Amino acid sequence: MDEQSKFKEALASVTIRAEENGGKLSAEEAKELLKDMEFNDEQMSMIYAYLASKGYVVEGAVLPEKEQEPYTEEEEEFLEQYRKDMKSMRRQTEEALQELFSAALTGEQEAIRLLTEHYMEKVLAVAEEYAHRGMLIQDLIQEGNIGLLMGLHGAADAEHGELTEDYLEREIRKTIRAAMDEQSGETRVGEEVTGKLNKLADSITELTEDLGREVSPEELSVFLDMPLDEIEDLLRIAGDTIEVDRQEQK
After folding, report:
1. How many whole angstroms from its chain centre is CA 250?
2. How far is CA 235 from CA 190, 204, 220, 243, in A?
3. Is residue 250 domain-resident?
4. Are residues 79 and 172 in the same domain?
5. Which of 130, 153, 176 lies at the terminal end of a domain, its last residue?
6. How far apart are CA 234 and CA 237, in angstroms?
7. CA-CA distance, 154 to 132, in Å (whole number)?
8. Cβ within 8 Å of residue 180, ≥6 positions away
């Protein structure tokens, strides 16, 4: 196996470990998984930065310095209100948490409510780790709270039947990352459609100039080697911004 293939395989093992642990792992775990590659500290720092760019959290990692992006005015207003709300929520002692975990496993709603309040701060902390990566902080927090509730309600059904802070944090991270992945996919689809619309518009301009008349969807289908149905879909999306000859070609 060549070095590039070995590196890809080793990096894949790191991301798999992070996925298994709810989107995070320690720097020591990453080093252990990559030990055969014999990377120096600078190279490991670049790998940590790559993992961070993919939404993974590497605890204890030294990342290249990066200027912190500011929140938007809308995000700042939301965070101010969220932090204000947190102050009115009751924090639990370690002893009380263990009792609430046990009660929540039986489905006791009051225990679930108190745990939800207690872990609002944890949701905020995790959400801020994923900020400035395509989703607003309020959306990240919303997804994190959904993950928290799913974890609290679903713990009794989990194989281990345990409720711990680590388990809840994994559920929070998992839900946030799933939302980010979904949005990323939607963004890629949007960019692909935009690219096709631009190509369609350019082709219409080119053919109209060559033929001296408006072109038909059928002609565009042939010219672009694209199914007629797809051409029609793109024209519907474009609406009045693109004009074609709708008369059936003979």
Report:
1. 50
2. 15, 11, 11, 8
3. no
4. yes
5. 176
6. 5
7. 30
8. 55, 130, 133, 134, 135
Task: Say how far apart CA 217 and CA 106 lie, in whole Å.
Answer: 62
Q: What single-letter amino acid sits at 181?
A: D
* CA 81 vs CA 47, 74, 95, 105: distances in Å: 36, 11, 29, 31
Q: Is 129 helix (H, G, I), strand (E, B) or coil?
A: helix
**Tokens found for residue 95:** 């002893």
- pLDDT tens track of the chain, all 250 residues? 566 777 778 888 888 888 888 788 888 998 888 888 888 887 888 788 778 777 788 888 876 665 668 899 999 999 999 999 999 888 899 999 999 999 999 889 999 999 999 999 999 999 998 898 888 999 999 999 999 999 988 876 655 567 889 889 989 998 998 888 887 765 566 667 778 888 888 888 888 888 888 888 888 888 888 888 888 878 877 765 566 655 544 4
Q: Which two tokens stand for residue 222?
A: 């042939």
- Pair (167, 201) in one structural domain: no
Q: Is residue 108, in this structure, part of any structural domain at all?
A: yes
CA atoms within 13 A on the CB side of 220: 29
Q: Which residue has the tokens 């900020």?
A: 131
Q: Which tokens belong to 77?
A: 């207003």
Instruction: Compute the distance between CA of residue 210 and CA of residue 224 in angstroms, rounded to an integer.
Output: 15
Q: What is the residue range of 41's domain?
A: 3-59
CA nearest to 230, candidates 242, 246, 244, 218: 218
